Amino acid sequence: MTDLSALPPASALPGCGSAAPVLRERGQREVFCGLTSIVWLHRKMQDAFFLVVGSRTCAHLLQSAAGVMIFAEPRFGTAVLTDRDLAGLADANEELDRVCVALLERRPDIGTLFLVGSCPSEVIKLDLAKAAERLNARLFPRVRVVNFSGSGIETTFTQGEDNALRAMVPLLPQTQAKQLLVVGCLADVVEDQLRRHFAALGIDPVAFFPGRRAAALPGVGPGTLVLAAQPFDGETVRALAGRGARPIASPYPFGAEGTTAWLAAAARAWGVAPERLREVTAPLAARAAKAVARHRDRLAGKRLFVLPDSQLEIPLARFLAREMGMALVEVGTPYLDRQMVAAELALLPAGVTLSEGQHLERQLDRVRAARPDLTVCGLGLANPLEAEGLATKWSIELVFTPIHGYDQAADLAEVFARPLERRARLAV
Length: 428
Description:
The protein is of the alpha/beta class.
């Protein structure tokens, strides 16, 4: 495994580079909408409630995606727009205010209420920004009301998180203090692990955005160093830079190599001595590399085709190519944010085919022509491709599963090895 504890700038690394040619696809899409991000956001921010202003279809999507039991009382719901609302026969704003007040009376534990726009609410031009302003005047400071769009007209499913966090950036208090701000929704167990790594490096204070309570907002200012943990939070990072923060360019903490590079970028920006960085990361990286090695035999040499879905595609392709020895046939992503993935592009093998956007029929034709050993794709494509004899992995599982950091590296490798192991057993 390559030692990236002293990773040079992306432009100095071999690989695709930031100027790599990209096949741009514009056509039929097959992705979940941004509402799906509520599934992991509501688990992270334990004092928040996400109220989707949408249709019964929106409600069915969320309940199906979250797997909510019938007796559970989750921290999300749908204010269903009916035919009367869509036809303009009722005052949707009055109805929304009534629903929000009734919800807060029933759930006094809510500290932050997110009003989430959907395709139906945006089609009828229901202004949720004005609604949030109106409700804040009535309910703040007991409850803060924030709005963002999860509409599938505009977003792929991970962009819902980006929209939610970006909507919170103007609310962050100003600070001049030096701090590290990690951006991106992470499982609590991963956050705890990363905090220990930063503490061992002497990096303190460290804040995570979002935190476990939406009302506990970190400060931001010229002393803030921003380290993205998710490649799909580009608008949030740029909004923080607009508040004076300084983003740190880095690969993402997937696998032993990526996690070391990610921590190294933070250490350099903070001024940590290289010797201290090696002392802290070397044993962690060695343990992670040993853990993923048991899956390498299953994955090494196998051909991989990644269809666009989550915006995690490029960092995960780097992990699979460099640490697991897979051959990349094509790596597709819904949106190619070069500012967010420049360091990852530099680590991809030279000559790999990159595609941005989706033209479903053309991409499926290329999958069928290539007959890869493993295809990473959206949930709706997996069963049809399996029926054609192709092994698949649902890309949505990679968002719901903790896969960041050293301790999760083996779990990440297993996610990709499992479909091939299953197919090998069935063949016997």
